[in-house]
Amino acid sequence: xxxxxxxxxxxxxxxxxxxxxxxxxxxxxxxxxxxxxxxxxxxxxxxxxxxxxxxxxxxxxxxxxxxxxxxxxxxxxxxxxxxxxxxxxxxxxxxxxxxxxxxxxxxxxxxxxxxxxxxxxxxxxxxxxxxxxxxxxxxxxxxxxxxxxxxxxxxxxxxxxxxxxxxxxxxxxxxxxxxxxxxxxxxxxxxxxxxxxxxxxxxxxxxxxxxxxxxxxxxxxxxxxxxxxxxxxxxxxxxxxxxxxxxxxxxxxxxxxxxxxxxxxxxxxxxxxxxxxxxxxxxxxxxxxxxxxxxxxxxxxxxxxxxxxxxxxxxxxxxxxxxxxxxxxxxxxxxxxxxxxxxxxxxxxxxxxxxxxxxxxxxxxxxxxxxxxxxxxxxxxxxxxxxxxxxxxxxxxxxxxxxxxxxxxxxxxxxxxxxxxxxxxxxxxxxxxxxxxxxxxxxxxxxxxxxxxxxxxxxxxxxxxxxxxxxxxxxxxxx
Length: 479
Hints:
Elements (H helix, E strand, L loop, with lengths): L2 H4 L6 H8 L7 H48 L19 H36 L1 H24 L22 H15 L2 H32 L3 H19 L12 H6 L4 H5 L3 H21 L1 H17 L5 H9 L3 H7 L1 H24 L4 H18 L7 H8 L5 H33 L6 H17 L6 H8 L1
């Protein structure tokens, strides 16, 4: 066996650095144990992503049907106080009802993003300072409570105005909602695995999302045949289980990032006493880190271009929220049937995440590509396929994660989440208005939002294609 192969590290760089610092004795047994600990973190993250995705996705179809039924009753001359409509009548497919439906859903999706934009960076800084588990749990708990409030509003439309749904995202100021929860999972995985394995781990996180969506469509279809509320309660239960997992998810001590020198020096005295007086210091620390990160982004052209690409592709992703409404409206199908049709997309995405993309990445590595250049190549190809209408994968977070210092990992992924949130913030009202135009024109123009989506993906591909691999990142990857 080659001596160089024998000297290859068994652990990710983060684990090695911890061992050298004295956190883990540099013995083979402890290295293997640390490696197993890292894999355990990845497994928990994938399981959490799967359950959370399934719980969220299984509620989409029944809640859309409930909302359409409520609006249909309120807009019809003979409306009733019932909160459920199992099969929508012809009136419910009229442009008047569908336009109001798209408006309520669009602004709902938009307002759900606002709390994440406001608190993502502070929670990211808190995660870097105190660890990911507490932030992850708070984010999941906020989503759970918001979901419970939405269920109450859907249950009593004669008491609560339906547009009160727009106020429920305020609850996710506690934890930041999905805008914080998802980046925290990616940050945990980033710290747990080596750079060469990172994109593969990200693929499996994405695959967990697709598996959740894949299972949710037929599950919702079958459950809605029994009662439209059954999948809603199942989804709520899954979100509760996800919150429980957040409480016990294994997070190694080396995932907790140290404070800066001045903050560390100020907190060396009585830690318990300091905790009662750190709110102002914490906000100041978060502001400084956020400002430093944005200045760093502004100084690096490649990262800026990737963030613009994320913004545009997020605009395009929102069109998928209109697919069920489009199918139900165009072909006069029930919501459960429309949701079942979208299963094919989840199957395709699952195959890409679990087989095609990992195999393509390994092939590029075998051909001599570095980890960074491999991810960049896959990102270009994926965005090109997205522009053509196929399912693609945004690998920009993987590449940017390799460009930033480990101490900023949590904050970097929240910055990425902010740009994605800004895209969704703009996409909701924009594509809803485009859909209203398509409904007014009638016929094939109902699909106008999807034409706009294709243009956004095309613009993303044109932006990312000229981007090259930074010399520093290439040299670091070779080392």
